[in-house]
Amino acid sequence: MTFRDLNFTEALIEGLDAMRFEKATPIQEQAIPIIQSGRDLIACAQTGTGKTAAFLLPILNELTEQPQSTVNTLILVPTRELAIQIDQALEGFSYFTPISSLAIYGGRDGEAFQQEKKALSKGANVIIATPGRLISHLNLGYAMFSEIKHLILDEADRMLDMGFVNDIKKIITFLPKERQTLMFSATMSPRIEQLARNILNKPKSISLSNARPAEGISQGAFKLPEEVKMELLTYLLNIQKGHKDKMLVFASTKVKVKQIRYDLSQSGLNAAEIHSDLGQDERREVLSKFHNGTVQVLVATDILARGIDVKDIELVINYDLPSDPEDFVHRIGRTARAEAKGSALALVSPKEKRYFKNIEHLIKMEIPILPLPPFLEKSIQKIKEKRKKEGPSKGKRSYKNKSKSYKPKNKKVSKR
Ligand code: AMP
Asked: In this predicted structure, what is the pLDDT of residue 123?
């Protein structure tokens, strides 16, 4: 289906042409007519399959046909980076229309706060916001939300989990009861879906492969002691280094992210880190360097796990496993976007065995266990001996490695 078949205005089609969007993706094909019909919607589709345009385009089309001088749509997202990204996509799509928008997120100075205040009180058409910063504004009483027609929760399951749900409930008290509410994510557990249904009004549901990793991701896992993860990581990244591909490493804490980045830089890799200890300008700069290829390896906490769309990430490595299996699906979903291909590798220590099982259970597939490179055997042997000396209770768990071999993808071996 082309976007012309969806009866979009010429101005919007022009924007889509400029962005080289020709055909609608399956989630767009299914979601757009439902959104246009005015129904509430809960939509699940794999990472990187075009959910952003699925919710933005019908809203932008409506705003092009029926311009409004107040806030028409509120989009809530979990991270600053995602707010910025959605605003940029919106600017692209609506380039030939008079639609106005603003991303509202924390960590910026008073001048930015004033700009946000103006957008909220004078009425930018679309506001994309992280909950905390928006609530700071709402508490001051000037937001013109009485004519909002659409509320969108992107990464909806994240927005409704414990960290955000109270903020979302509070924000909803500022919105008209008569509105359309749309929820999008790549994962949606039954518990969260139940909660979502309390906010939605007789929603339609679309579920395209809930919690299934994108088709183009080839996965593997290494089982190994925690102590040798760094050695393996450095080895794996070095294999890809010469190929100019972007690589993303996830770790669950800021402390680990910093340590890993430091060690990688020490070993000569072009690595940077991103986590919430960085100032907003630093976060923006690092991500922009990763986008433009100035940085090849980015080590990140889960602030980068959801929604972030960076072209040409060839490899995602989970240095550790997230306790929440849904986060794993989102982390590896940073590769193989928009029908591209990519690899995802997980480093699994004995303590993470349970997380690994939970992940396999969620994604309903076995992740192939890959053999460790022989040079690691020495290090592992040393660890075993050390543990033996330390006493019988330590060092009992071990992993056997099955014999499928890891071949880095996309490698053209030249004979010359
Ligand atoms: P999203 O899942 O919304 O982050 O989109 C993933 C990637 O696919 C982004 O780089 C989008 O620009 C791209 N994309 C989404 N929909 C289309 C489409 N219909 N045609 C071409 N590219 C698209």
From this structure: 86
DSSP line for 42-75: EEEE-TTSSHHHHHHHHHHHHHHHS--SS--EEE
Long-range contacts, 28-31 (Cβ 8 Å, 24+)? 28/53, 28/54, 28/57, 29/1, 30/206, 30/208, 31/55, 31/184, 31/206
Determine the residue of 3, 12, 28, 52 to mutate for testing ligand 1's pocket, defined as the one with the most ligand atoms within 8 A of the Cβ atom.
52
- 208, β-bridge pairs: 45
Q: How many CB atoms lie within 10 A of CB 151?
A: 23
Could you tell me if the CB of 138 is within 6 A of ligand 1? Answer: no
- pTM of the model as a whole: 0.93
pLDDT computed for residue 391 by the predictor: 79
Q: What are phi and psi of 392, to 5 degrees?
A: -70, -25
What average pLDDT score do residues 148-176 get? 97
Which residue has the least CA distance to atom 4 on ligand 1?
Answer: 48
Is the beta carbon of 2 within 6 A of some atom in ligand 1? no
Evaluate whether the domain defined by 3-208 bears CATH number 3.30.360.10.
Answer: no
DSSP character string of 71-91: --EEEE-S-HHHHHHHHHHHH
> What is the residue extent of each domain of the chain?
3-208, 217-394
Residue 48 · residue 309 · CB < 8 Å:
yes
- Domain 217-394 superfamily per CATH: P-loop containing nucleotide triphosphate hydrolases (3.40.50.300)
Spatial separation of the C-alpha atoms in residues 366 and 255, rounded to whole Å: 30
Ligand 1 center from residue 353 Cα (angstroms): 34
pLDDT at 170 over 80: yes
Residue 298 sits at φ, ψ, to 5 deg, of: -115, 125
SS3 329: helix
The helix (run of H) or strand (run of E) holding residue 135 is helix 131-138
In the beta sheet, which residues pair with residue 162?
none
Tens digit of pLDDT for each residue in 267-310? Answer: 999 999 999 999 999 999 999 999 999 999 999 999 999 999 99
Q: What is the pLDDT of residue 392?
A: 67
Q: Are 34 and 83 in contact (CB under 8 A)?
A: no
pLDDT tens, position by position, 207-252? 999 999 999 999 999 999 999 999 999 999 999 888 778 999 999 9
